[in-house]
From TrEMBL:
InterPro entries: LRR_dom_sf. The lineage of its organism: Eukaryota, Fungi, Fungi incertae sedis, Mucoromycota, Glomeromycotina. It comes from Glomus cerebriforme. This is F-box domain-containing protein. It comes from the Eukaryota.
Amino acid sequence: MSQLNKDILFLIFEELQNDSKFLFSCLLVNRLWCETVVPILWRNPWSYELDYSNKSYLFTIIAFYLPVDIKEFLSKHEINFPSTSYRSLLFDYLSFCRSFNVNIINSIISIGSFLEYNQFILQQEFYKILITKCSELKYLDMRSINHQIFYFPEAKVRLGTLYEINSNTTVDPTYFYGLARICKNIQKLVIINDTIKVNHGIAKLIEAQENLKNFEWKDEFDDDDFVEDPYKEILLILEKKADSLNHLKISFQYIYGFEHTFLQKVIPNFYNLKTLIIEDFDFFTKNQLIYKSMEVLYIDYITIKTAFNIIENSGGHLKEILLFKFYDYYFEENFNEDSLNFIRKVREHCPSIEYLTPTFAPTKEHFTEFENLLKKCKLERMIIEGSFRKNSYAKLLFNILLRSAPNTLREIRFFNDFKFSLQVLEEFFKQWRGRPALSILTTDNLYREDDYVRMINKYKNEEVIKDFKVVPEYKIYY
């Protein structure tokens, strides 16, 4: 492999760009490998699972680009620069960089000084260098930003190429106003709402975009004492972007009287959605939701009639359906019949389904419909909800999987009362040999007991199962 030419190496490294351990190890193979992998690593050098506050070499590399007179000025303010920051570099690292992460850069800056004022002026110089040297910025994470970077030299050129912005609502609105003048081609915007104060700058930034495709909003605050509606302005502006908007992910904390009614009113108007993810939203009841291009549907609370409507009008493109609480039906007698119809509708209308939450009772009809679904669809992952305390139910479920599960199946997540005896589970693993290894997740601590752990480790070693984890409830879903 060390003899592969640079073009082939580059293609391989591109495919493995999210495997930082592998890429870091490639630096040590030889000069060719090093030269090939450095531009990939430096595209987004802030994205790795590292303690950046201890990475003095990153501080040294960025500091190298500072003009000597600036370094001398900063040194007089007791900001420490390592002597190596004055030497030449092997690569023009920042020319490869396509991203800017304020939080991580601030963490690196703490290496130079612990004093707040010193960090403030060092931030300004580091930001300025990054804006100048990063030839084509695509990603900006501006949480905790303290400087109006849109006034820096070359900011209009650099920030005008941004594809994605990640921010929070505590950022002053003037920063969004400044970016709205420059950034017109943002395609993905991720907002963390961490304050009860409404930020009107975000709406202005959304309004300025000509091709916004992906919008995410997540509430992360403790207080809910809003003076004005925190969502309505955002939703109204997004509604005007319905032609281009393909992916919408929202997590609103329950604040009755704000999002509850208005969200249901505007959601049907986003007719070009391919992805709709609505978390922590109570009682989603709108029945007429028609998305002809829908591929991914995650909703926490939904009536089963609404789910039927979406599935029937999805144009056959749905690949992932995760519906966790059928609000009106979950505790009703007719839930069994409705859940049967749900499985049937998925089988009939979703030939491309890969990820699904089939919720069903342990009845003969449910097992039959489930097996029919497995035979027709190429499922890769499932979250199975229900109650399977009896070993006879577990055996029936496992026999169906052994008979009819597609070779594409890689992961099963069990939520609720799934208590498989040691003997039943081991028999399933024995018969699963020769198939692609399964990953299994469950919420039940039964499988932490010693006998289960020994048996599970045995089949892990035989590569019958890839993994078997007991996880908190929320990790089953996401």
